Amino acid sequence: MAKCSICSKTAAFGKKTSYSHSHVTGRHRRVRKANIQRMKILIGGVAKHAYVCTGCLKSGRVVKA
User: Fold this and answer.
1) N or C end of the chain: which has fewer CB within 10 A?
2) Within 13 Å of residue 59, how many CA atoms lie on the same side as its CB?
3) Rounded CA gap, 39 and 6, in Å?
4) Contacts of 14 (CB under 8 A, 6+ apart)
5) How many angstroms separate the most distant Cα atoms in the chain?
6) Strand, coil or helix: what is 8?
7) What 3-state class would DSSP assign to 54?
8) Is the whole model's pTM more than 0.85, yes or no?
9) What residues pair up with 52 in beta bridges, in sequence order?
């Protein structure tokens, strides 16, 4: 399973609910997968491949090599 090497973000588990029906019969399992990309980033001044989520890319926590 893909995991962000910076913030450790993984898949989030929960329930999918039908809004037009009862919550008792209209609930199903669901998985929300994080948007993980394999990129070449600088880690300690050395360029390495790592799995990074797009949230870390946008926030500037990661420097691209």
Assistant:
1) N
2) 8
3) 12
4) 29, 30, 32
5) 55
6) coil
7) helix
8) no
9) 37
The phi and psi torsions of 33 (rounded to 5 degrees) equal -90, 140
Sequence-distant (≥ 6) Cβ neighbours of residue 18 within 8 angstroms: 26, 27
- Give residue-wise pLDDT tens across range 11-62: 999 988 877 766 676 778 999 999 999 999 999 999 999 999 999 999 999 9
Long-range contacts of 37-41 (CB under 8 A, 24+ apart): 39/64, 40/64, 40/65, 41/65
| pLDDT on residue 28 | 84
Residue 40, strand partner residues: 49
What letter would DSSP give residue 62? S
Amino acid at 39: M
- Note the residue count of the chain: 65
